[in-house]
Amino acid sequence: MRDLKNTVINKSAALKILRQILGPDRPTSKDEHYYKCPECNHHKPKFAVNLDKNVYHCWVCDYRGRNIRRIVRRFGSFTQLQSWDSITSRTDLEKFSDLFAEEPIEVQEKIELPEEFISLCSKNIPATGKYALKYLRNRGVTYDDIVRWKIGYCFGGEYRNRIIIPSFDQDGDISYFIARSYSGDSYKYKNPRVSKDITFNELYINWNSDLVMVEGVFDAVVAGNAVPILGSTLRKNSKLLREIVKNDTPVYIALDPDAAHKERRIIKTLLKYDIELYKIDVSGYEDVGSMPKHVFEQRKKSAVFIDGGDYLLRDLLAAV
């Protein structure tokens, strides 16, 4: 696997940016500097940053990582992040495609919403929409959620009595939609027969912020800046993985409690690309979609950082 760390080219400029974000430093060697930790805010400078090795570690709260850019992205401004990228090797993305050269990229089909689709974003909703709205309210979906996710329903046709949640690609075109029954149909989901190799609602994802990876769309409604994998896994050449790696996006894993094997495969894949990873505890609930939003936010704040070396070692020992 290619080394994805971003080499600092101009160290004096890098220190200037770090001081703007973290405050004054206490140098202990040529390339190691100690700051007050932005994570635990300990009163002493216990947060070590090593420019030469491109790592950081707090000796109080154990907040650590292998890419200093993540500190700038998380605690700095967008302008500071741009400045950081200009003084590191990250701006040279010419060989990025080499990481995914094994398989051809699938051309995404363009689809349309069902002709019978009726938006629930309007204030003048037909009487036929009351059952769809009742279903959504029972799941804790608010009007703001409906507007943000452009949720609608079908009262007739192939997707009769189903909630429709569309996905928009980066150009604003429909890339997929989920159709969930709200009338007790034996088939809960009846989705379009097109490829699932998409990034659901790519148009609205902020790649420079934490991204929550969940199973289904209703989980994503609760999780905020989130992407559902639609019951699938994370293939090595998938569009979602390519975007995560290209943007160096921190990922919070919040899959269903009964998807442990799938979760391990996804974690292994992301660790191979040196992605900053956290695991959210979903125990006690069927899935994220059944969690109250305030509970999910609390659990996200207490998510466990996944250290690559330790995790892979534990997984290897568990298989013995």
Give your account of this protein's structure.
- With 320 residues, the chain is an alpha+beta fold.
- The chain has three domains: 82 residues, Zinc finger, CHC2-typedomain (DNA Primase, Chain A), CATH 3.90.580.10; 65 residues, DNA primase DNAg catalytic core, N-terminal domain; 115 residues, Dna Topoisomerase Vi A Subunit, Chain: A, domain 2.
- The strands form three sheets. The protein has a five-stranded antiparallel sheet, with no helix packed on it. It has a five-stranded mixed sheet with strand order 11-10-12-13-14, sandwiched between helices. It has a four-stranded antiparallel sheet with strand order 6-7-8-9, with no helix packed on it.
- The protein starts with 10 loop residues before the first helix and ends with a helix.
The biggest beta sheet, please?
A: 5 strands, antiparallel
Tally of alpha and pi helices: 10
General form: elongated
- The portion of residues assigned to helices is 25-40%
